[in-house]
Amino acid sequence: MAKKILLVDDETDIVTLVSSRLKASGYDVITAIDGMEALDKARKEKPELILLDVMLPKLDGFKVCHILKFDDNFKDIPIIMFTARAGEKDSKIAYESKADDYVTKPFEPTVLLSKVKNLLKEGDPIKPQK
Amino acid sequence: MAHYKGKFNFGKVSATAVELVFWFVVISTAIFINLSPKVFSDTKPILLVVLYIAFLAFILKRGLSQIASPRKKTLFIITVIICTLFPFLLIGARAGRIAIFYYMPLAFSISMACLIIMVPRVYIITVVGISLFILSEVFQGIYMDSRMRLRFPIETMRTFSMTVTAIFAYYLYKKEMGMRSELKALNEKLKLFDAMKSNFIANISHELRTPLTSIKNAAVLLNRKTEKSVQPITISDKELLDIILSNVDRQVRLVNGLLDLAKIESGKLKVARCLVDIGKIAAEVANSLKMQADVKDVKITAEIEPDLPMVYASADQIAEVYTNLLDNAIKYTRDSGRVILRISSSSAGLKSVIEDNGAGIAPEDIGKLFDKFKRLEDMVEHKSEGTGLGLVIAKEIVESHGGKIWVESKPGSGSKLIFTLSHGLRKGD
Questions:
Q1: What is chain A's Cα-based Rg?
Q2: CATH assignment at residue A22
Q3: What is the pTM of this model?
Q4: By residue range, what is the domain housing residue A59?
Q5: Is A128 part of any domain?
Q6: Are A24 and B231 inside 8 Å of each other by CB?
Q7: Which of A106, B217, B221, B385 is the most exposed, fewest CB within 10 Å of its CB?
Q8: Taking the C-alpha atoms of B142, B147, B152 and B155 in order, what is their torsion angle to the nearest 10 degrees?
Q9: Could you tell me if A87 lies within 8 Å of chain B, comparing CB atoms?
Q10: How many domains is chain A built from?
Q11: Is residue A35 one of the residues assigned to a domain?
């Protein structure tokens, strides 16, 4: 069964692109466009991994990450943050809010994919059925 | 005077006060010794002169370290020397009366010099102090009887003159401190401004990276699609290209916003001006925006009074004002709305009104319209379609032309953006 990834970004273009890339690699992708929806979907759908943007409406990515990581039911879901600000501040906060990894925008799709694979402990992405 | 600071952790001013007290105690002791006739000896004047020189050196060193400009340094040295030598000169004028070589010279110079350090407006205090001193000396002359005995307690006079000087100096000192706290507040404001700017730069870098991320990802996907061997990508080439194009546009808009910001910041808005027909300019702008209005099905009409007087202005900048205001009105008017541009002339000048029947603006938001930082914030938070700086630029331009710009709006019943320009020749601008 395809692994479920929750992709959270308020940029619809990025959601479209990243989700189609992930789908092409055989993942099941669900999306959310703000922090509240992300929390909602994470709780309902129990994804195996979360890709989380920092700058989100309603509730920012760090807070979403923090809330999930301090919840015993969800703390094991790996989270990759998309940070975009220059400087170390974001990566530091990402670390403090216990995100498992982060990529800096504009990220290389292959880098993101390899981080996803790494956190899902897969050697290779799941090949779609031919 | 590190030992004072070390022990009590005084601020800079308190340290000065401690030094003052220290020297006051030393000199008072010297004066006390000198005043008591029982211990009178010939060495006393020498002791006082040594103290005087030491004190002079200390004052000069302390004062000079706080003054930056060479001109002020010279003035300071001269003032200190005159202030401190002045009493000696007076004494010298009364030859043979060495007994007066007590109290006044050193005490006076101490108070003066300490005040010189603490208060910048030293000249006023010097004048007040010296006048009072002379006054007390004059009184001394008047009240001296034939046997050279004082009828009037001259020490009281001197103490009085010094007290008044000190109070006056304290008043000036307080005033100076008030000014410093004002400066401090201003400094805090600037710091805040700087923090806002840094924050803005951080946000804008985020904003600039976002479209790049989309462009890059779309390009990578397009590239992948050319390699037939890999997994199929569901998204079409057209969609990917659309994403790339719209994000390039967005990037351009952001960069334009930054350039606009730079324009406002560097005050480059003052350019060559001549007599222009703003009615003609406005009509041209309204015409050029027709297409944009048509897309939204917004009806744009211009009601421009004929034979408007010419205005001394920059044609490009005035065109930019109309473009920004009309563009803004079109953007915030609901579909199939209307935008009316009215220009009329009165004795006060030319009044342009850009009226729309959009959603209107809440009273609490009106102030934010022209707030550069608020607009920038909205820009990074995607609350506005463009850079949001159009109104800010319009305001800058109108104000640099000596005009005024304001908004009249009620939520639900559209809004009016109004600006005025005075007509005729205004070469002074």
A1: 14
A2: 3.40.50.2300
A3: 0.49
A4: 4-119
A5: no
A6: yes
A7: B385
A8: 100
A9: yes
A10: 1
A11: yes
